[in-house]
Amino acid sequence: xxxxxxxxxxxxxxxxxxxxxxxxxxxxxxxxxxxxxxxxxxxxxxxxxxxxxxxxxxxxxxxxxxxxxxxxxxxxxxxxxxxxxxxxxxxxxxxxxxxxxxxxxxxxxxxxxxxxxxxxxxxxxxxxxxxxxxxxxxxxxxxxxxxxxxxxxxxx
Length: 156
Hints:
about 160 residues; mainly alpha
C-alpha cells in the first residue's frame, strides 16, 4: 500500500469513531432490534445486510444518545476526542457509496423511528429531511411512494 493510501486509510479510520464506539455495544440492543422489522421495504426492494447493519447502528446510536448521553460522551473522550463538547455528540451519518441505497436506508430509518416513538423507546421528535438538489428530492418522493404502497403504516 502506498504512503498516500495508508494516510487516507488512517484518516478514514479516525473519522469512523461512532462505529468504533458502537461495535462492542451493538449486541446490547438485540432485544430492541427483535421488536422491529428491518428487511422489507417494497414489493421489489428488500434491504441488504449492510443496509440493515446501518439501520441497527443508527438506532443503537440514537438509543445511546437519548438513554445515556454522559456514557456516550465519555466514549468519545476515550477515543481521543478531548476537544469535543457534549453538544457535539448529537450527530451521525451514513457513509455509503453512490448507488448503495442511502435513500432507502433513510426512509426505512424514518419508518423505524416512528415505530420506536410509538413504543416510547425513543422520545418523539420531528424529523426533517434535507436533500442537496431537486433530483434527489424527486428520488426520495418516488421511494416514499413505493414504500407506502407496500406498507400498512404510511409515511407522510
